[in-house]
Amino acid sequence: MVKEIERVGIPVVHVCTVVPISMTVGANRIVPAIAIPHPLGDPKLDPNEEKNLRRKIVNKALEALSTEVELQTVFED
Amino acid sequence: MHLELGHILINDVQFGQQTAIENGVLYVNKEELINLIKEDEHISKVDVEIAKPGESIRITPVKDVIEPRVKVEGPGGIFPGTLSKVETVGSGKTNVLKGCAVVTTGKIVGFQEGIVDMTGPGAEYTPFSKLNNIVLICEPREDLKQHDHEKAVRFAGLKAASYLGKVAKELTPDKVETYETLPLLESIEKYKDLPKVAYVQMLQSQGLLHDTYVYGVDAKQIIPTILYPTEIMDGAIISGNCVSACDKNTTYHHQNNPVVEDLYAQHGKEVNFLGEKITNENVNLADKERSSDWTAKLVEFLGLDGVVISQEGFGNPDTDLIMNCKKIEEKGIKTVIITDEYAGRDGASQSLADAHLSADAVVTGGNANEVIVLPKMDKVIGTLDYTDIIAGGFDGSLSPDGTITVEIQAITGATNELGFNKMSTKML
To answer: What are the pLDDT digits (tens) for B407-418?
Structure first.
């Protein structure tokens, strides 16, 4: 899906847990997620902390979306 | 470590007054077995049925399959850390009831459970159609949480297998197989001209009912470690796993791991088989990196020349598999990987979710997306309520005439990644 959307000229950020698969598949902007069953959250955290975590990942994704890249890039912390 | 596995050949299973084995027939006291399983207050209702090869019977949803075994001599008991006390097993003597198994069914625990047909085209895809099966139909207490339900049915299967195994404790086996693994340095010295080969077994540990237990420890909490392969023959590894039926390892698969058996068969001939490493398949990247790093480190530290790696399940564990393969190959150690494929119903899609050039020796258990039509059976043990929702099934899988159209993913053991099946390519 990442590649098909990019093919029509819309940049995509792939937020995913298993970064190596994203690299293999060929995503250009990759933001690491938390875990496969809960990519954007963490049930171990209390709701406020979890909200902060979710916001951080979304902000990171937006930042990645607006960053020019030459090669496949992983946006780590 | 030295283990003698005594095969007690079971040709038939019947209900009887007393649980015993006579002339190759296993007699089961149904009431006694039901009462044993009902000791667990989490289970409200239990029934036991027998399903034999060739009978027009469909068992579904199948959760686990377990082979009855009993420890005859040596430390520990069968299923250490779960049913028996924690003690290192794998030495001495163990008797096995060959030709029968305990199968657990009942209300579905997780959506990824399987079908075992005892006859017809589906029977060809599961090794369990060739066994005399003692099927436990366990219904959970109302309001029981899903993970407690899983645990209750997991223990019901283990208890039943242990109960049946005990009747073989005093019997003289029909056949005895001997397996031995020496301490590392002794084994290297003994066959110093042969290539040093070990087995890396990946255990399903994604959580949420996709779990495996090692001496009672949830495998997602282990770091890669070493076992004498005979330990698994005594039930050191058991399944608590409701992942896709075709490529999960049931407890029976763990007890009868064909990679271990084949490596033992070549030990001292073509290879110097130096034991088993186990690792896991967790759901976050740090765990995947750590476990594959440690697996590669162990393999290097032991000075091996090559390893056979088997996967369990599919999807994100494909990455664990490729990480293990790549990191071990980077150390100059050869690998062969055993996996299966999800290449679409036409077989044209990419087979694995991840790939790498170093994975250049691959054994496949087959394409799990292949569609099969399973004709109606005269009898269903369990229920057909879930055939449309189990993995491999789809809306409309079950026709009004009782025919089921599913991907072979839904058949227990169909594309097993230990190679415990018969699928092959056509030779042209």
So the answer is: 999 999 999 999
What are the residue numbers of the active site of B? Answer: 242
Is B146 touching A (CB cutoff 8 A)? no
- In this complex, the residue of B284, B353, B355 whose CB is nearest that of residue A34 is B284
ipTM > 0.90, yes or no? no
**A18/B285 CB distance under 8 A:** yes
A35 CB within 8 Å of a chain B CB? yes
Structure tokens at A69: 């890249």
A39 domain residue, yes or no:
yes
Please tell me the pTM assigned to this model.
0.94
A21–chain B Cβ distance below 8 A for any pair: yes
Separation CA B393–CA B419 (nearest Å): 23
Give A65 to chain B, closest Cα distance, Å.
Answer: 22
In a domain, residue A77? The reply is no
Q: Which domain holds residue A33?
A: 2-69
Q: Where are the domains of chain B?
A: 2-410
Please give the tally of structural domains in chain A: 1
Q: Do B75 and B350 contact (CB within 8 A), yes or no?
A: no
C-alpha distances (whole Å) from B5 to each of B92, B173, B309, B423 are 9, 9, 25, 27
pLDDT digits (tens, 9 = 90+) for B331-362: 999 999 999 999 999 999 989 988 899 999 99
Q: How many CB pairs under 8 A join A and B?
A: 35
